[in-house]
Design a protein that fits this description.
heterodimer, B: about 160 residues, mainly alpha, 6 helices, about 0% strand, flat
Chain lengths: ~500, ~160
């Protein structure tokens, strides 16, 4: 095993695999920075190309895109409130307010350091866990998966800045909207009201674009200012000082980084849950354990460190379940399975015996891509001074970003109606923001709604209406009860302390 | 607060109607989750409405105070500015629909920047740059079939 471990690393001392890894990193950053195009689109475009390449080179190319696209996407989340990737949405909650406060460099620094370190620890944990993974993952059934989604929504609702009831309403509305459209298994068109545009279900990209980017652009244009006027006169040296400060923040919050990395890693082990849930759960836990939870959502560096650590740590875990069980741990891992099958390799328990060296190569590729990507992102953020973008007046920013928003919405499925969807969700986003509803909770519900329905139905069919009485489910329900009792307990204690003080 | 109550009333009506529609679906598999989720929205909206009518929100918590402070900041943006900005966004959609993506992006960018106070030379240059950038990134590099607009479609260009 040790020999395969070392041989896996040695592959990257050769020019061809290393070259394709670096190419993948560059493509991943570029695609990640461009709003809405996304790493999955890039992987879909490049998948046929890997067939003609050596398997290590081809898989390295895809692995690098997987590793780094979310980091690139977080740059636009922080600077422009536009998530380049779904995993970058949680970073936006505090990253963008930091930019508005003139701390874009600090947010970028914290993001880069947390993401790179999280990824490396995620890979190391995955390597260490190879022998133990199978029984752990196989014990998680559909009932538990169903409740894990509700747990994710509960975290957002209870720990959000808005009232918990509004947070839950937002999450459930997100689930409800994800159900609109044709249901393949029954052939029923649900809540389409005869519209063909709604028949194929709403695509994630136009919804996200409207809810976040569209709503922010509408406010930005209406206010007529730049995103952060304080960034205007910031010289490169000062920006790099901010980036370094953000990097140091990760070490100052090393406990938080470790907890978030572990959260991301554990969530990443569960097939089908995916990155957004990992980032939101890590964000929620960070807020819960913080000494100043009220600062979350207003531009708090911990709110950037937590989701970024989790986001990149989960890829190591997702790769482990992909290789060990043949179950894609995330959407991008489905492409890795596709590439493996194209090279005649069947992922699953047998792969860890027959292709152990290749398995280690992929893990090393993930780690090295994160290191190279982190350095490249640092150069781009610190020397190309991307944060100057946010100091541009609204008259230049709004039309240019809006063009990318519409292009991104359209290219998702090449329907003009998707731009109308974006416009509708822009209005919904503005209303939600102004009346204190939780947009992140809505989005999580929307992303996981279909999985929730699928898991719920399978659990109901296989275990009956009391499926939630399984031990794993009871543990999750217990966590939810603790979560919902936190705020009332805190208020009760505060009132009692006040009464004692006044008595 | 009035706006918040109106939104909740709309939400209650929409949730009730949607849950009612879902209840009419022929298979249990198709209707069970929409009914449960719709019912949960309905129940939670009623609870929130009752809270808002009683004025019993978590205003005592520091989190809410922060949110209210931000709300005050946002009040500075007048509804008229929102409508105007929204009209630009809707207008952009129609420009794309007529001229297609490449032409539409160029024209909209130049018009928006120019009419918002930028020098026309800069506005037009930015429009041209955006049109070229959109073409290079999406049409050329990503090989996406961008909508050509109804004018070009009328003369036979498909995209």
């Amino acid at each position: 095993m040790f020999e395969a471990f070392v041989q896996g690393l040695l592959h990257y001392t050769h020019l061809v695999p290393l070259g394709f890894l670096i190419l993948g990193v560059c493509i991943g950053i570029f695609i990640g920075i461009l709003p809405a195009i996304g790493g999955l689109t890039a992987m879909a475009l490049l998948l046929p190309l890997t067939f003609g390449l050596d398997k290590v080179a081809g898989l390295s190319l895809l692995m690098a895109i997987t590793a780094i696209a979310s980091t690139g996407g977080s740059i636009t989340s922080i600077l422009m409130n536009i998530p380049g990737e779904a995993t970058s949405v949680a970073t936006m909650i505090d990253g963008f307010p930091m930019t508005q406060k003139g701390e874009a460099g600090r947010a970028l620094g914290a993001m880069l350091m947390a993401a790179s370190m999280g990824a490396i620890l995620g890979v190391l944990l995955a390597l260490a866990m190879i022998p133990a993974i199978r029984p752990v993952v196989m014990s998680i059934g559909k009932p538990e998966l169903c409740l894990i989604i509700l747990l994710g929504l509960s975290f957002l609702a209870v720990l959000g800045r808005e009232s918990p009831v509004k947070g839950l309403i937002s999450g459930f509305v997100g689930i409800f909207i994800s159900l609109v459209g044709f249901q393949e298994s029954t052939g029923v068109a649900r809540l389409t009201f005869g519209s063909s545009a709604l028949f194929n279900r709403l695509d994630l990209i136009p919804v996200t674009m409207g809810l976040f980017a569209g709503a922010e652009l509408l406010e930005l244009g209406a206010a007529g200012e730049s995103i952060a006027p304080t960034e205007r006169a910031r010289p490169g040296k000062e920006l790099r000082a901010q980036i370094h400060r953000g990097m140091k923040d990760v070490f100052a919050n090393i406990g938080l980084w470790f907890r978030s990395t572990m959260t991301g890693y554990i969530t990443g082990c569960i097939p089908g849950i995916g990155g957004p849930a990992a980032t939101f759960v890590a964000y929620g836990l960070a807020k819960q354990s913080s000494k100043h939870p009220e600062k979350f959502g207003t531009g708090c560096v911990e709110g950037v460190i937590a989701p970024e650590s989790a986001s990149n740590a989960k890829e190591g875990a997702a790769l482990l379940t992909t290789l060990a069980l043949g179950l894609p741990g995330s959407a991008s891992m489905a492409f890795i399975i596709g590439a493996l099958l194209m090279h005649g390799i069947i992922p699953g328990p047998a792969m860890l015996n027959a292709e152990l060296e290749l398995s280690f190569t992929l893990f090393w590729g993930l780690a090295i891509a994160n290191i190279i990507g982190g350095i490249l992102c640092y150069i781009i953020a610190g020397y190309c001074n991307l944060s100057r973008i946010v100091a541009l007046p609204a008259r230049y920013l709004v039309p240019t970003i809006l063009a990318f928003v519409y292009l991104g919405s359209f290219t998702a499925s090449e329907h003009m109606s998707d731009i109308l969807v974006t416009l509708v969700f822009t209005a919904i986003g503005v209303l939600m923001k102004r009346f204190g509803y939780n947009r992140a909770s809505f989005l999580l519900g929307f992303i996981l709604g279909i999985h929730f329905e699928e898991f719920f139905w399978i659990a109901l069919q296989s275990r009956g209406p009391f499926f939630f009485l399984r031990p794993g489910c009871l543990v999750i329900i217990g966590i939810m009860i603790v979560l919902y009792s936190l705020e009332p307990t805190r208020l009760f204690l505060v009132r009692r302390r006040q009464k004692r003080a006044s008595a | 607060m009035k706006g918040g109550i109106s939104i909740l009333i709309v939400l209650i009506v929409v949730a009730a109607v949607s849950t009612g529609i879902a209840a009419g679906y022929p298979y249990l598999q198709a209707k069970i989750v929409p009914m449960l989720v719709g019912g949960a929205i309905l129940l939670l909206s009623v609870v929130q409405l009752a809270k808002e009518l009683r004025g019993n929100t978590r205003s005592e918590s520091a989190m809410k105070v922060k949110a209210e402070e931000e709300e005050e900041k946002r009040v500075e943006i007048t509804p008229r500015s929102f409508v105007l900005e929204g009209s630009w966004m809707v207008g952009f959609f129609f420009i794309i629909y007529i001229l297609g993506f490449i032409g539409g992006i160029g024209v909209f960018t130049a018009l928006y920047a120019g009419m918002r106070g930028a020098r026309w030379s800069i506005a037009v240059s930015l429009g041209l740059f955006m049109a070229v950038l959109s073409y290079v990134l999406f049409s050329y590099a990503a090989d996406a079939e961008l909508f050509p607009g109804i004018i070009l479609r009328y003369v036979g260009v498909t995209g």
